[in-house]
Amino acid sequence: MEESDIQLIRRAKRGDTEAFTLLVRNYKNYIMQTAAAILSDRMEAEDVTQETFVRAYLSLKQLRKLETFPSWLATIATRLALDAAKRKSRAVSTVEDVAESAVDETYGGFRDVENRIDVLNLLEDLTPEERTIIVLRELQDRSYQDIAQILGIPIGTVRSRLHTARQSLRARMKHWERDDSHDHL
């Protein structure tokens, strides 16, 4: 986190709306990527992103450690996204919408469209809880401690959920590989 962001947070805590607007601009893509990866629905992710910043603005004065601002925002976004996923049984969106919005930056290693679509489809097949833990650990490279704090669960639970999510992802990948090999016969 840059010193300029810390200064903006200090100003925003004192009621400077321009400073908060700059913080929104600096962190909007990060929050959008987080929400889109969890929800697999661009419109829903945009709503979660907007709600995240509304809630952050309303409770910014309660933030004690300014350097935790990105994790604090991610916590708000993750919880809102999980709530949205629970309200909605399955996101209904096209892969292209998600790919164009957040995938380029979130899945930077997957440059060609086929690989990005495969990754998105694999993530969409996971439960919201599995998707969330994979996104936080594997795509955002969060520590177990950070994930525990964001999700409000013990570290042991993070480890077991991550293990389960990885197994689920591996099983789906094997299934896709078998399906793909039959296509070429």
TrEMBL record:
<comment type="similarity">
    <text>Belongs to the sigma-70 factor family. ECF subfamily.</text>
</comment>
<dbReference type="Pfam" id="PF08281">
    <property type="entry name" value="Sigma70_r4_2"/>
</dbReference>
<dbReference type="InterPro" id="IPR039425">
    <property type="entry name" value="RNA_pol_sigma-70-like"/>
</dbReference>
<keyword id="KW-0805">Transcription regulation</keyword>
<dbReference type="Pfam" id="PF04542">
    <property type="entry name" value="Sigma70_r2"/>
</dbReference>
<protein>
    <recommendedName>
        <fullName>RNA polymerase sigma factor</fullName>
    </recommendedName>
</protein>
<dbReference type="InterPro" id="IPR013324">
    <property type="entry name" value="RNA_pol_sigma_r3/r4-like"/>
</dbReference>
<keyword id="KW-0238">DNA-binding</keyword>
<feature type="domain" description="RNA polymerase sigma factor 70 region 4 type 2">
    <location>
        <begin position="118"/>
        <end position="169"/>
    </location>
</feature>
<dbReference type="InterPro" id="IPR014284">
    <property type="entry name" value="RNA_pol_sigma-70_dom"/>
</dbReference>
<dbReference type="InterPro" id="IPR000838">
    <property type="entry name" value="RNA_pol_sigma70_ECF_CS"/>
</dbReference>
<dbReference type="InterPro" id="IPR013249">
    <property type="entry name" value="RNA_pol_sigma70_r4_t2"/>
</dbReference>
<dbReference type="InterPro" id="IPR007627">
    <property type="entry name" value="RNA_pol_sigma70_r2"/>
</dbReference>
<keyword id="KW-0731">Sigma factor</keyword>
<dbReference type="InterPro" id="IPR036388">
    <property type="entry name" value="WH-like_DNA-bd_sf"/>
</dbReference>
<dbReference type="InterPro" id="IPR013325">
    <property type="entry name" value="RNA_pol_sigma_r2"/>
</dbReference>
<feature type="domain" description="RNA polymerase sigma-70 region 2">
    <location>
        <begin position="23"/>
        <end position="90"/>
    </location>
</feature>
<keyword id="KW-0804">Transcription</keyword>
